[in-house]
Structures are given as structure tokens and as C-alpha cells.
């Protein structure tokens, strides 16, 4: 397949990515994984470029993997400590990013509690923006590493039956995964309590997606099973009667996983609440690819920084 023209400047969500673009990112991540396996896992592809991670919400996996990815590509990487920045003095988001750009930032990787914050920056400022999670809206890089892990372990994404279980309605991971899975031709079952299932016209654009409140129905023959982290505030807000009832109806344990395909892959975006949405035996069992997701996150984020940070192909492919 011919590589698509990389005309976009930002990675905000997967809803406007074509299948060709997504596959090109996954193919590039293969090359990046080869780099990470070398004795010296570093290439000069982004030497002289500066990547700033601006996380207005706490994060371990995403922030650290982006920083490792930037350094593996020889970029200068700066972490904005929001708690010690001028944000605490009332500086606006746009003015903060204007300052970062003036200081020499080429790429901003942002996580923000407000949905749409990265879109605002991308609209008004001429700088590459990568969305590392905005509110309950989108988390495109997590979806891409999930897709990469599926393809790596199962050989394909097309026609896979994928079951996503839990708080779909408030999950930015689920939303971005839906767009990516639909673009690549997967069949998706969304399962959870009725109060936590999504609503709205977007679902009409995704004919390969089905909703159910019955876990057994969602798991039947599933080749990928992805429970989502259940946030305790859902019970406090009245959307769940109790955690005990949720565990009894929706926890992925060994007995329930047996309803899926015999070689089903178990994924989880993390962090996990073991004993709530997923049992310990499943989380660390033979079918779990959760640690692989974390590892693959570095390669996928290297691919994104490389493709949208304007590196040279020869810098990566050279031995």
C-alpha cells in the first residue's frame, strides 16, 4: 500500500483518520519497535526538535512513554510542571502555549481535563498538537497503541470481534477506539449498565458497533476483550447502585472469559482496578496483553512524533 500523504498537522482524535493513515502509523510503529530493540535504542530523526509534554491531569503511562519516545528520536523533551507554571497565576491556556512556542517548542503533547482544549490550541496556534487525552472526549494515542497490539498479537484488525465493557459513556479511550476499529473494519460490541452506555448521533455513523447490557452476549466469540476502568464517582453520582453489583454483573473473570474466543486477547487501558472490572487472574493471565500495551505505547508514540515532528525516513531505517 502506498503511504498516504501526511498533510495533517495535528493528532486530535481518530474520527477524521482514514484506514490508510492509521495503517501507515502502525507500520511506522513496527520500524520504531525495531529501533527500540537495538543495543543503542536511539536514532537522530528529531535531533534539534523540542517536544513539550503539558499534562494538566495526572498521568504515568502516557506522559512517560511520550518522553521516552521523544528521547529515543533524539528530540529535546521538556515536561511542563503545571503546578509550578504561570497557570496557577491565572495565565490562559492559549497564552501558556504561545509562551512555549516562543521558547522553541515544535510539538506540544497535551492532556487536559476539559474536552476540546487541544482543539482550541490547534485552531489558533501554528504548532503541532498531539492530544494525550481531553476530558471524556478522546485519547487517540491510546487507541492507536490498542490497535497496534491487536494487529501484532492477532495478525489483523479487520473483521475482529472486539468487546469493550464498562463505562463506555464517559470513556475517552472507548470513543477513540470506536473510530479506529470502525475505520479498520472490526466488529465492536459495547457492553455495560444502561446508564453507562453511550448516546447520541455518532453511533449512527458506526454501523459495525452494537450495544448490549448483557455481558454474555458481548463476550460470545469475542477475539479481543477490553474492560475499562470503573471510576468510583460513577457510583457516587447515582449511575451505579453499588460496586458489588457491578462486579457480579460485569467483572471479567476466568469463567466469563471462557465465553470468548479460546485465544481471545485481554486488553486494558489502565490503570486497573483489580477485583472490580477485571479479576487478578485475568489481568495477569496467559491471555493478557496489558503489559504489551504499555511497551507498545512507546513505539506508537515514537511513530506519531516522527511522522508529525518532521523527521527523515533514512534516519530511522539506517542500521
Provide an overview of this structure.
The protein is α/β, with parallel strands linked by helices and 319 residues long. The chain has two domains: 19-138 and 295-314, Rossmann fold (3-Layer(aba) Sandwich); 140-293, 3-Layer(aba) Sandwich (Rossmann fold). The chain contains 13 helices and nine strands. Helix 2 (61-72) links the parallel strand 1 and strand 2. Helix 1 (19-36) crosses helix 5, helix 5 packs across helix 6 (172-183) and helix 5 (140-154) packs across helix 12 (290-308).
List keywords for this structure.
9 strands; 14% strand; alpha/beta; 2 domains; 4-stranded parallel β-sheet; Rossmann fold; disordered C terminus; 319 residues; 5-stranded parallel β-sheet; single chain
Find the count of extended strands (DSSP E, 2+ residues): 9
What is the radius of gyration computed over CA atoms, rounded to a whole number of angstroms? 20 Å
The shape, in one word, is globular
Main sheet overview = 5 strands, parallel
How would you spell out the order of helices and strands?
HEHEHEHEHEHEEHEHHHEHHH
**Total number of helical segments?**
13
Estimate percent helicity: 25-40%
Please specify the SSE layout and strand pairing.
Blueprint: H1 19-36, E1 50-55, H2 61-72, E2 76-80, H3 93-102, E3 107-112, H4 117-124, E4 128-134, H5 140-154, E5 161-165, H6 172-183, E6 187-191, E7 209-212, H7 215-219, E8 224-227, H8 233-236, H9 243-250, H10 254-257, E9 265-266, H11 280-283, H12 290-308, H13 313-317
Parallel strand pairs: 1-2, 1-3, 3-4, 5-6, 5-8, 6-7, 8-9
Amino acid at each position: 500500500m502506498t503511504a498516504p500523504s501526511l498533510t495533517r498537522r495535528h493528532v486530535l482524535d481518530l474520527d477524521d483518520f482514514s484506514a490508510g493513515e492509521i495503517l501507515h502509523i502502525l507500520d511506522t510503529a513496527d520500524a520504531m519497535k525495531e529501533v527500540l530493540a537495538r543495543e543503542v535504542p536511539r536514532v537522530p530523526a528529531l535531533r534539534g526538535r523540542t517536544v513539550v509534554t503539558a499534562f494538566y491531569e495526572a498521568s504515568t503511562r502516557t506522559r512517560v512513554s511520550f518522553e521516552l519516545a521523544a528521547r529515543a528520536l533524539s528530540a529535546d523533551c521538556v515536561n511542563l510542571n503545571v503546578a509550578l507554571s504561570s497557570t496557577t497565576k491565572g495565565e490562559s491556556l492559549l497564552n501558556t502555549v504561545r509562551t512555549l512556542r516562543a521558547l522553541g517548542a515544535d510539538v506540544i503533547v497535551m492532556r487536559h481535563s476539559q474536552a476540546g482544549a487541544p482543539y482550541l490550541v490547534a485552531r489558533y496556534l501554528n504548532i503541532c498538537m498531539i492530544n494525550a487525552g481531553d476530558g471524556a472526549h478522546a485519547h487517540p494515542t491510546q487507541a492507536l497503541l490498542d490497535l497496534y497490539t491487536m494487529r501484532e498479537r492477532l495478525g489483523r484488525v479487520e473483521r475482529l470481534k472486539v468487546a469493550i465493557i464498562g463505562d463506555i459513556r464517559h470513556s475517552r479511550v472507548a470513543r477513540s477506539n470506536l473510530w479506529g476499529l470502525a475505520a479498520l473494519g472490526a466488529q465492536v460490541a459495547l457492553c455495560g449498565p444502561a446508564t453507562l452506555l453511550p448516546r447520541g448521533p455518532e453511533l449512527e455513523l458506526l454501523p459495525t458497533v452494537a450495544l448490549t447490557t448483557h455481558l454474555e452476549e458481548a463476550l460470545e466469540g469475542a477475539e479481543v476483550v477490553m474492560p475499562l476502568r470503573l471510576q468510583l464517582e460513577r457510583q457516587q453520582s447515582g449511575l451505579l447502585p453499588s460496586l458489588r453489583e457491578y462486579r457480579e454483573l460485569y467483572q471479567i473473570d476466568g469463567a466469563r472469559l471462557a465465553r470468548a474466543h479460546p485465544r481471545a486477547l485481554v486488553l486494558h487501558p489502565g490503570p486497573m482496578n483489580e477485583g472490580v472490572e477485571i479479576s487478578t487472574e485475568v489481568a495477569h493471565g496467559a491471555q493478557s496483553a496489558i503489559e504489551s500495551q504499555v511497551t507498545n505505547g512507546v513505539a506508537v508514540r515514537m511513530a506519531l512524533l516522527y511522522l508529525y515532528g518532521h523527521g527523515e525516513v533514512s534516519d530511522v531505517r539506517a542500521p
